[in-house]
Amino acid sequence: MADTILVTGGAGYIGSHIVVELAGAGYIPMIVDNFATSSPSVLPRLRRITDQPIPCTAGDVRDRAVMKRLFAEHAISAVIHCAGLKAVGVGEAQPVAYYDNNVGGAITLVEAMTGAGVKTLVFSSSAAVYGQPEKNPVPENALLRPASVYGRTKRMVEQMLEDVASLDAQWSIGLLRYFNPAGAHSSAQIGEAPSATPNNLVPVLAQVADSDAPEIAVYGNDWNTPDGTGVRDYVHVMDLAAGHVAAMAYLKRAGGVTTLNLGTGSGHSVIEVVAAFERACGRPIARRIAPRRPGDVAICYADPSRAQQLLGWRATRDLDAICADAWRWQVNRHR
Length: 335
Ligand SMILES: NC(=O)c1ccc[n+]([C@@H]2O[C@H](COP(=O)([O-])OP(=O)(O)OC[C@H]3O[C@@H](n4cnc5c(N)ncnc54)[C@H](O)[C@@H]3O)[C@@H](O)[C@H]2O)c1
Fold this sequence. Notes:
single chain, Rossmann fold, three-stranded mixed beta sheet, 11 helices
C-alpha cells in the first residue's frame, strides 16, 4: 500500500508542485489548506496533471479539531509542512499575524502528529534564516541571523523541531531551506499565482511582460556585484519538488533532524534574470532603478552539496528553463 503524505499548504505555489511529484513517485498526496493565499481552482488542475483525485481538506493548520480529525480519519505516514505566510514586507508590518500563522501553525501540526504517532516531517524553511551571509556559497552551518520577522518565524520553527526531535528519537525531520524557487510545471496548468502584487522577481517579470504592470523595479544597482544588482540562487520549483520526494525517502531511513539547503549552487543577478526572461517571452521588459530595500543583501546563493550527498539530489533545470516555464504559465493561467 502506498504511503499517504499530507501536504499542508498544498494548494499553494510550492505545495502544488510537490503534490505532483509525490503522485508521480507513487505516493498518495493529500492537502490541507485554508486558501489564505491560494485558490481551490488548483485542485482540478492537479487532478488533470496527476490523473488522480487529490483529497483536500479546507481548513487551517492552527485549528486543533481539524488537524486531529485529519490524522484520525486518514492513515497519514508523513507530512510536508508548506502552509505559511511568506511576504517579507507584510511580516514586518504584521509581525503577530506572521508568528501566529507560521509558528502557531507548526505547533498545532506537531501536536496533532504527536497525538497520532506520525513522526516524519519535512518543513518548508528558507534561506531567510541566514540573513546577511558571511560568505557565498552558504553552507547549512553558516551563522543564522535572520533579518526579517518572516526569517525569524522560520528559524523559530526550526528550533522547535530540533527540540522535539532531541527528546524523542522516533522523529525524523527534514528542515529544507529553499533559496529562490521560481518557474512552473511544464504543463502550464499550475504555477505561482500571487493574489496580491508579487514580491518575487520572476512573477513580477511575468506580469510586466504580460502588461499587467508597466515596468519592473530593480532595487539598487550599486551593490558590490559584477553588474551592481542583487545576486540570488533561482531554483526551479519542479527541482525543488523533486528534492522533497528525495527527502521523504531519506527521512524514512534517517532519524533526528536533517537540515539541507535546496538551491542550485550558483547565483544570477537581477539584470541576468531580466535578460533571460526577455529571451523567454520574446519582448523587451522596461525597468526602473529603485532604492535598495531594507534587509536586502548583495549576494546569496546556496552550497547545496549536502543535499546532493545525502539525498542524491541536485537541481537540473537552468535559468532559461525557469523563465520559459514561468512565461508559459503566465500566458496560460487565465485560460
Ligand atoms: N516561494 C518562496 O520564495 C519561498 C522561499 C522559501 C520558503 N518558502 C516557504 O515555502 C512554503 C510555501 O510557499 P509558497 O511559495 O508555496 O507560498 P504560497 O502562499 O503559494 O503557499 C502557501 C499555502 O499555505 C496556505 N496557508 C497559509 N497559512 C495557512 C494556514 N494557517 N492553514 C492552512 N493553510 C495555510 C496558503 O493558503 C497557501 O496555499 C511557505 O512556508 C514559505 O514560507 C517559500
